[in-house]
Design brief:
The chain is mainly alpha-helical. The protein has 4 helices and no strands. Helix 1 packs antiparallel against helix 2 and helix 2 runs antiparallel to helix 3. The longest helix is centred in the last third of the chain and has 27 residues. This is PRC-barrel domain containing protein.
């Protein structure tokens, strides 16, 4: 291992993890899961072509988990409807919390 395919997959994995960790909203998180799906496929191909079966098997399972994440964040009609109703309330709550944090004594 350690060829260009692995480097692409490694960089993509880090970008996907950073996108999800950044908590930039449902769409960004959904796109992070799409990127995770893409790099899982690359890792599977890499594992199969270099005889690294544990890598291929692990990423086959991760592909399923990440596909579920895509469903949850981008494709589920029910979840989208719920989030459309929650988003305006969420923004107000975030503003309240920020105001509380500014008033709270440091420590």
């Amino acid at each position: 291992m350690n060829g260009p395919l692995e480097w692409i997959a490694a960089i993509g994995t880090m970008l996907a993890a950073g996108t999800i960790a950044a908590d930039l909203g449902r769409k960004a998180t959904g796109w992070g899961f799409i990127l995770f799906c893409a790099v899982s496929v690359i890792w599977i191909v890499s594992g199969l072509t270099t005889d690294a079966m544990p890598i291929a098997a692990m990423n086959a399972i991760l592909l399923l988990i990440n596909a579920w994440g895509v469903w949850q964040y981008l494709l589920s009609r029910k979840n989208r409807k719920v989030m459309e109703r929650i988003e305006p309330i969420e923004e107000a709550i975030e503003e309240e919390v920020e105001a509380e944090e500014e008033r709270a004594p440091a420590g």
